[in-house]
Write a structure and sequence with these properties.
Phosphorylase Kinase, domain 1; five-stranded antiparallel β-sheet; Transferase(Phosphotransferase), domain 1; 7 helices; 279 residues
Amino acid sequence: MDSARSWLQKLQPRDKMRASSRKKNTFDECKDEEKSPEDDESLSNTTKQKVAAAKQYIENHYKEQMKNLQERKERRTILEKKLADADVSEEDQNNLLKFLEKKETEYMRLQRHKMGVDDFELLTMIGKGAFGEVRVCREKTTGHVFAMKKLKKSEMLRRGQVEHVRAERNLLAEVDSNCIVKLYCSFQDEEFLYLIMEYLPGGDVMTLLMRKDTLTEDEAGFYVAETVLAIESIHKHNYIHRDIKPDNLLLDRYGHLRLSDFGLCKPLDCSTIQEGIFQ
């Protein structure tokens, strides 16, 4: 028995040495892997553009959240001031404030709700393209009217239009301007991709030209100026439209212009443009 014990005692240090040796080898291997990080210069322009778009999206999302929080505080402050000035009992004031909080909570829950095609009532078709269509739709919960762009994913793949659609979606999500059509949300199912956008009841500039035949000098100057502002708003975010035409210039209910249809838009890599080329 004693001999067996002494043999085990002799064996244990060797096992410990082997274990420590294995740990050391593993550590050295990890160290070797850490010595070969991917060089930043090897990143493609597409990756850089995706990173920039994601960064801009997160910043816009954060700003929107902070804006909503500030507006919520302001609404509460205004209500508290009105209640303080009015002849309302303390109990009624508390009840009204609780009612406001409940409504705000319901609104925030609706904001977080994952949208789907079943949340909308489909109305008139207002446009049809090679791999999709645009319909007027009404959100069932609020009754608000939007334009739903419905794109068939299999056709997008077959025609090689995936990158164009992705660029359109990224631009609409990234650029916050009154000069372009607004994107409210996007979602998809197994067959289609859906973009829920601002509905503009004024038609397009092509229809306006056909109806009026000739614009006055003031009207032409007004629409040219708003078109320039719209193009500038996307150039600031390093995108080019590549399909400017009267059909893609839509009018809102007040007659102001919005640039639309970014299916051919392309991110512009400004690092390849030589300084002074436009001087």
